Amino acid sequence: MTACPDSSTASKSLWRHRDFRRYLTGQAASVAGSSISSMALPVLAVLHLDATPGQVAWLAFWGQLPPALLALHAGALADRHSKRRQMITGDLVSATALVTVPVAAALEELTLAQLMVVAVVHGAACVLHDAAAISLLPTLVDRSLIQRGNSRIGGLFAIAATGGSSLGAALTALLGPARALLGDVGSYLLSAWCTARIQARETTPARTSQRRLRAEIAEGLRYVRDDHRLSVLTWVNATTSLALAVLNTLWALYLLRVLEMSATAFGVVLGIGALGAAAGALSAPAVARRFGPGPMMLGALALTPLTQVPLLLASPALGWEIVIGGALFLQLACAGAAGTTQRSIRQIITEDCMQARMQAVSTWLTSGARPLGALLAGGLGTWAGVRPALIVGACLLVVPLVVLARSPLRALRQMPAPPPTPEGTGYTTGQPPAAAGPAVPAPGPAPAAEGAMDGGMP
């Protein structure tokens, strides 16, 4: 699927771009709501349902399994059909699944088994939504504005996550973790409404014959494999995701139970980390111009394992809570800067008709790593203890650094050029595009520049 953006996409002021504002508002609302769930669900499982480390790991496993199974199909569907319709469907299914939790809690029927079912349904709906949402941006704005758009998105999303974490902490304290999830339900409804108001027309490419979904999935896999830039960045994301899955699975349990952190302090720490993500995303364009996209990403990946040291040395004390918050700020600042840059590179060099499938391949690998990381964390946490499991996760964060350091991308000084012929060169033969050779820097300095490097936060 390709879209035909109107002339307003060429505007240098993204804030005056009506469709971009609607897109950004809807996605930011969803991010804020998801931060409420990230705050409320661990508290609900650990403190109210007395979940063991193994049960926490299984809850994480089931929530992370749908992307590993469905990402490739969701990407192919988004390239074939309306991205906006797929986003709205995902939002409505997520809202329906989450609303069952406060209802069951009110009836005193809530169980860990239900949380696992909700995690599966919610995860599947998020796959459908995200595959379409991430690939919709290049159809709304001109490619010359993608890096700047991703920077704005990353900054606003991080601020929304900060507000969501703070709101989640307040709602959890006032209403309890189950009813706090109603905030996330409302965010999905707002996201669906904003998406429905986007007016940019989407057009389905002409097809001489109906192609099998499996063939289009295979085409996406070949496309990423045959472009060394896409393949390297995808493997960096996947290995980062595996390491962070080990850390994420036990992080809430470690802070809430081992370090005896209160639910309110837990939410505040999450909020501090989100501010770091905003700072990293907003500063990414300037840092990339000064040092180059490759060295900047390499430096961010080198700092990330070091940010886990305070977590591993901490003991129950207010001072350590402050130090952990500061380390999380730095970690997510690195993630925001590197994630904004790598996503912009991938979107710039990918043809319109392959945007969703390109992103789906990355989502498939990163999401496939998460259940493995969750199971590894659960096994290590049960057998050796929570702190040794976190040490293993921190050590695994060195792997993506090595992957990028062994690639020519480590020395990339400018953002690459887009495909030479944006229209009329659809990738339908299984051959890589002309830009799939060595990175070709755009003339002049990198343009003024979302999202964190995959993996989120522990």
From TrEMBL:
InterPro entries cross-referenced by the UniProt entry: MFS_trans_sf (IPR036259), TM_effector (IPR010290)
Keyword annotations of the record: Cell membrane, Membrane, Transmembrane, Transmembrane helix, Transport
Organism of derivation: Streptomyces chengmaiensis
Chain coiled-coil ranges: none
SUPFAM superfamilies: MFS general substrate transporter (SSF103473)
Membrane topology designation: Multi-pass membrane protein
Compartmental location: Cell membrane
Name of protein: MFS transporter
UniProt feature, compositional bias: Low complexity: 423-439
